[in-house]
Every structure is written in structure tokens, then in C-alpha cells.
Design brief:
Arc Repressor Mutant, subunit A; 3-stranded antiparallel beta sheet; 3 strands
Length: about 90
């Protein structure tokens, strides 16, 4: 299997979960957010959210940076565009 194909499978598996799809949509719409910013946007527990962030990060769909005690995430728009062209236009309300 080609590298692109392997990466595509990871991306689509990550997006196949409704919670991860929603997290990615929010990040595309809002830009960079901290974990705390998601507290009022979802009913999932913090451990469940961490699990979803990790899968999105491992698929390359989000980039995570740490500042002090806080983690900040943003969508990797370039990778997203490679695998889901026009994601922003099609899936995110502007």
C-alpha cells in the first residue's frame, strides 16, 4: 500500500467518528482553541476528549502545542485539503 493510501485510511478513520468530525469542524471554523474552550461545546468527559484529540493528531488532522499547563489545537488545513478538498466550503458554516 502506498504511503498516501495509508495516510488516507488514517484520515478517514479519524473523520469517521461523529465526535472527531465535530471537533475538526469547530477548529476549522474557530481557529486555534484550547482544551478548555471545548468544555461548553461538548458533553464528553475530558478523558474522552483527550482520546479524540490524540486520534486526530495521529492522523495529522490537528496540530497541538503546549503553553504552560494548557494545550492549544488547530486544524491542519493543508492536510485536510489534500484528503477532503473544499472541506471548509462544504462542511463548515462561515
Amino acid at each position: 500500500m502506498r504511503d498516501f493510501d495509508k495516510r488516507a485510511v488514517k484520515v478517514f478513520k479519524a473523520l469517521g467518528d461523529p465526535n472527531r468530525y465535530r471537533i475538526l469542524k469547530i477548529l476549522v471554523e474557530k481557529g486555534e482553541l484550547s482544551c478548555a474552550d471545548f468544555d461548553d461545546k461538548t458533553e464528553l468527559s475530558k478523558p474522552a476528549m483527550s482520546h479524540h484529540y490524540r486520534i486526530l493528531e495521529n492522523a495529522g488532522l490537528i496540530e497541538v502545542r503546549k503553553k504552560g499547563l494548557h494545550f492549544y489545537m488547530k486544524a491542519n488545513l493543508e492536510l485536510l485539503e489534500d484528503f477532503v478538498p473544499d472541506f471548509t466550503k462544504t462542511h463548515v458554516k462561515r
